[in-house]
């Protein structure tokens, strides 16, 4: 697959990715390389990466615990301290090998350490390949809310190696699939249509779909790097989805959802709101709801859950002038940004979802 030129960096795929990495390492002179991993990517992914890295630059491995609950400023402080202890300087390079937690947080750590050092992302989950790989967003959760502290700083490059997906569970794959479905819903109906029969998708086809999904997101981000306009389209499903994800993480007695699972719920709810606001046709809303529930099932939210989730919306970082902001669908493949919805229609969306 051809590399994709993003805004200030390139995204490379499979074997080409390692060739480009080695070429880059030969051209640049780094004092030391630091690989940031979690216990899973340290065991399953880094052993594949290291033999393919051709450099005489000394390196260190920094391992953190996996999980969204560790995507905090406290973890960053620990890693900044380790970097100092191991002699990291402004000529060091960080290579983040992991899912969205690692690439989001590793990018934030690199972009703030000594006012910014170079970093490369190697996403290892489907979700991070099609979402976190594009756009330069880095950050951590704060105050129990997702991605409240962060930067927009581009990596030197992103390397996507789809062979890492062989280590993922079906649940993790479905989580990543949600972002790919979102890309089709907001920008390219034909991309959405390709997922109608999941049984027909083999590994080679998946490679092509990943590249297409990355291209869709990249085209949007390139137009609006700092999210002042069309990039807000990527928030479809995320206003309610993030609130749902946060609410369930804060209540250990309830079963937490993976990011993509929560976004799938959010896309159904926000599709209903799109329909209620007179944008999306009912038949397209029902198509979206049916297809997503076939893949992700249904999560029941009682009245207390719904009220708590709605209360969390006020803290969403996408809000402007105290108003909750939505990206809503005009139709499959077309989005309308800077939309608002009252609590009544949001509550109604949960009622319809629970049917």
From TrEMBL:
Domain 3-dehydroquinate synthase C-terminal: 176-319
GO MF terms held by the record: 3-dehydroquinate synthase activity
EC number(s) reported in the record: 4.2.3.4
Keywords attached to this entry: Cobalt, Lyase, Metal-binding, NAD, Nucleotide-binding, Zinc
Cofactor(s) named in the record: Co(2+); NAD(+)
Pfam family, one: DHQS_C
Main enzyme class: lyase
Keyword NAD among record annotations: yes
Every 3-dehydroquinate synthase N-terminal domain range: 62-174
Function according to Swiss-Prot or TrEMBL: Catalyzes the conversion of 3-deoxy-D-arabino-heptulosonate 7-phosphate (DAHP) to dehydroquinate (DHQ).
Name assigned to this protein: 3-dehydroquinate synthase
